[in-house]
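re: that chain from earlier
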Amino acid sequence: MRLLLAPFLSLLALALPLAASAQFSDVPDTHPHAQAIQFIKEKGIVEGYADKTFKPNQPIIRAEFTKILVETQIDPDLVKDCLYADHQFPDVPSNVWYTQYICVARQQRILSGYPDGTFQPANTINFVEAAKIIANTMGYAVSAGDPWFQPFVEKLAEINAIPPSVASFNHKLTRGEMAEMIFRIKSGTFDKPSKTFDQLAGQSATYDDTLKRDVLQAINAERKTANLPPLQPSPILDTVAQSYAQQMKTEDFFDHTDPQGRTITDRLDAAGYAYTYYGENIGIGAASAREIYENWQASPPHRQIYLSPDMQQTGLGYVRVPASKPLYAQGYYWVMVYASPKQ
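^ sequence. v structure.
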């Protein structure tokens, strides 16, 4: 089964910002973003939660991030008058708290959504997605490059608006980091430490086999909870998975069946792996072990495969998505093969 994007999070469970006290209980003066959070609170951009917290270290989702950025810069009348029928996404309802903000953001060409036409409002937003929305909202004259996000990141780096805590292009932006970026731009505070594009590019490239280790550890931890034995890594299955991830990239497709009509059983047979049970999960766009695991975990068909008591071994492959595939380009093609060898 295909899994393109990040896991769905229930928007009904989202705690919307409500009135808070003068000082958030979870933002001490020593917090690195305390000044920024106080600034956006005083400006009425964000108030906080009902329990008088701000949750500065909590990743922010795309719907909430868009709402906050729009309220920062866009005339409220434009928001109110936006005709959603003319600027809709198929996965954005017409009458929820974030509808009009996404409507006007699309109307003003602040954002365009994912290549499949969706917006994915419940996805956590990563740094490069946020950089594009911020640059466009603030009116910076920036156009997409190659990779698409480079000009947006370079613009924010030019004005020292990238907090040092941003770890990579795919970094999941927190509420505190969002506040810091808005504060620096809106207050004209451009003399604070900031990351550069080259620094983030170097950090984004430092992936190695710890990805395989971390995915397997997460899955085996879930199997342990289900009273199942751990999956054992298989060099043969690793090779099958890695070869197929590379094939999807080279031949530009995303499916369990390749353009020649071959499936996982054909790939196992070609590798000389005799099996009694088998399965395969694939993904595209996830940029970390945690993200791909959470994607598969959120999908019952994917979980059913790796939680099957019949599976004994596994192999994982991943390869960077090319820059020619716009919003997925910061992530990977992922293939995880599961099987039990014939005795």
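Residues 6 and 295 are 6 Å apart (CA to CA).
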